[in-house]
Write a structure and sequence with these properties.
By secondary structure, this protein is mainly alpha-helical. The chain is built from 6 helices and no strands. The protein is elongated, with a radius of gyration of 16 Å.
């Protein structure tokens, strides 16, 4: 999935924002990445949010990056990332 995201952003960084244009480009990027089956833009967005949460991006920057109106959405991705929880516990116990 990461390769798909890299290829998508590298090849399609400037594109019209219409839903059909995005869908066509997501489909083309998935084909270029040899991904079988349907790939939906929402899945790619959720994957990107999960990836950044796993990398330790905190709620407010994640919210801004993804364009969410509600901070709770970012907090949900961070809560389920697991790594953020593990890192926080390590910090508490190693201070």
């Amino acid at each position: 999935m990461e390769l798909c995201l890299v290829r998508f952003t590298g090849q399609y960084d400037l594109f019209p924002g219409s839903r059909s244009a995005v869908n066509r480009r997501v489909t083309a990027a998935a084909e270029d990445a040899d991904i079988n089956g349907q790939v939906y833009r929402h899945c790619l967005r959720a994957t990107a949010a999960s990836y950044h949460a796993y990398q330790g991006v905190v709620p407010v920057p994640l919210q801004a990056l993804m364009g969410w109106h509600d901070l709770a959405t970012a907090q949900n991705y961070i809560r389920i990332s697991g790594r953020a929880t593990a890192d926080a516990l390590r910090q508490v116990h190693h201070q």
